[in-house]
Each structure stands twice: as structure tokens, then as C-alpha cells.
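Researcher: Structure for this, please.
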Amino acid sequence: MPHTNHPLSQSERLEYIKKRLNDSQLNPIEIYTLMDQLSYHSSIHASTHFPAFGSVHTGFSIEELHLLTLALVSNHTKLDLSGFVSDKQSTGGALGSRTSLIVTAIIVASGFMMPKIASRANRTPAGTVDVMEVFTHINLIHSQVLKTLERARGCIVSDQELWNFNHDHFIRFDEPVSFSSFDKIIISLFAKKLLTSVNHLVIDIPVGKNMLIKKFSDGETIAHTCIMLGKRFGITVSADIHEIYEPIGSGVGVMIEAKDTLEILENNPHRPKKLEDKSIRLAGKLLDICYKDQKSHLNGKEVAKEILFSGKALTSFKNIIEAQGGNPDISSQQLSRPIHTFELKSKKSGTIYEIDMRNMNTIAKILGAPQDKQAGIHIIKHKKDIISNNEVLAEIYANDIYHFDEAVESLENLPIYTIEN
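Model: Predicted structure, C-alpha cell format:
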């Protein structure tokens, strides 16, 4: 269906609002028109032009979600891939949890194809492709992605050059009008999977105070909806719901998270073990659903461990780097350091009660992340650690002195650590 050249009129928008307020389902033509508007007209913001989205407490039905997703991708070029095509997707919000690069390397080394197409970070200090850009080119066009997949069976690239629709604009509703059923997350998630021919998917659903998903029950609702919707699209879905209260890597920021990735792939003794464990768990779940459809009795988690610890995942990762135009001769020791460093020290003895990830996110953004790839926060002490007065809790990094000074001053009003006696 070709897209329309002009935004809907006010009267047309009111008809959508009235219909959804009465909990009536939109028909296919209305759905295609609606998604066309959000995809192509950057002047339209969902929270102001389509408040019906935020007013419907029951959310969309599976049929509507199915049609909305199809409508969103209807005018865009698909990566036409065959065979087992796997992917991992997170609902977002977890800082310092860069598992996608590691999972991709494991899955590709196992023999399955994994096209990882992601967006740059918008509200966080680092995103998957921001980190991948440390190692190689990420802005590939359609034909280059296909060549990369042919050479390496995997890729980790930006969606910027692939699909010219207003994808992130659609998902970034203002929080007060985000719809209770999290339909925006689900539609956005499945749109990318359809465009990459994915048929096996593991969904990472972090839950917690500072996550997009606050309650475990909401995570279960999303998981159930994704499994049901996946069946409509011929995608086998496995979900991993887990609570998270602090970054499970060494910190937040592009270079810090790139170093975490390489250290885990290298089996470096100083690697972040919690991030490694989560990567193995997600890769294992993804392999399990692939093996099940292959009628294989292999254990996904055990295969993932063997691939990671044997160095096969590192080899696959370097193959992907080279296929995307980068230099595969890279190690965690070669990554560059920032110009400015500040040691954040405790002001009293006690036990770390909480790490405020919202404040951490804000400080990292003030430091200049993700545009400044060296900017970020290296976490030294974690929740429940017992610490002494004047002990170093974290290190603050940046290259720009003005951003650096502002971030250090902001720590007084935006504390990262809460320490109890």
C-alpha cells in the first residue's frame, strides 16, 4: 500500500480516537493509514496527534498488533534470508548489559545465521551499534548487509541506512501517555524481525525500578503476547524475564562496554562474570529453540559455553568485524583511554544499599556519551558491597573538560550510590 503525502486532518484523527475509546478494533485500512502516518511524517508525534494510543487501557488485540506491525513494514525492503535466522532483542532500559554482540558471536559460531540490526542509543550512554562502531563500520546498505551475511553468517549494523521510516519516533511516546499494554515496544520489536526474516527469537526482558518494564507481571504479559504474536509471523519466541538493579558489566559508556565485550570473548580473567553468565543464558535459550526445530537433543547452554570458552565466538566476532570493513586484529588491551578521569569516593563507611541507574544514566550523558566514545562510568563497587570511608566507588571518564567538570559537579545532586551504615 503506497504511503500518503499528507498527515491526517484533525477530524480524521478524532474518528480514530472515538473508535479506540469505545474499545472498537481498527480495521486493516485504518491501521495501515495510521502506521503510514507515523512512519513517514516526522511532524506527527504519537502522543499529541494520536492520543487514542494512550487512552485505551485494554491495549490492542493480537490481530491489531499483527496488522499494525505488517503496516509499519509494508513499504520497506526486507532482507530476504532463508533457513534458520536467529536474533536476540531486549525491551531495553538495562545499563551496562551489552549482551547482543556476545550472543551474536556465539550463535554465528554455532552455525546459525544472525543479522543483528539495531538503532543508535537515544536516551542511554551506549547502544549495540554504538559499541560495534568501535570495531568496524555499522552504516551498511542493503546489498552490503547481504554480502556480510554471506561471508560471516552474522552482522551487527545500524538500521539507519536500511529502513527510512520513522521507527524511533513511533516508539518514543511521552511516558504519561505510554499505553499500559506496552504495545509500542512489541510492534517496534517485531517490525525489525520481519524485515530481517527472523524465525527464531529470544527476548530479553529486564524488570526493575529503573527499567522500561517496572513489574515482573508486566514482563510476563509482554512475553506471552510476543510468543502469541510470534506464532502469527512464523517466529518461534523464547523469553527471559529477570530483575535487574545495577549494571552487570563493568560500567556504562561505549568504550567501557566495548572492553567488556572483548574481555568476555577473550576469556580475560578480569571479565565481568555476571554479563558473561547472562550472555550464555540468552544464547543458550536461543540455541534451544533452534535445536528443538531441528529435532536435535543438544543442550543450548552447554553448546554456548563450549563455543565461548573455546575461543570460537571470538573468531566469529572478528570475522564479522572484517566482513563489515573493520580490522579484526583488535584486543581489549588496545582500546583507547579517556583524557580526564575522576575517582568517585565514599563519604562514609557502610554497605552499598542501592545504585541509582537513572542518575548514572544522566551523569553519563552529561559526560558526553555516547557521542564521546571514551565517556562513561566505570563501576568498581557494587550493590551489597561493604566499603570504607574514602574508598573508590567508581571512576568517571570524559574527553571534554567542560562536560567532565559539569558531570563531577552534578554528582552532588544526582548521587549514584546510596550507602547505609
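Researcher: Any notable elements?
Model: The chain has three domains: 10-73, 86-332, 337-420. The radius of gyration is 22 Å.
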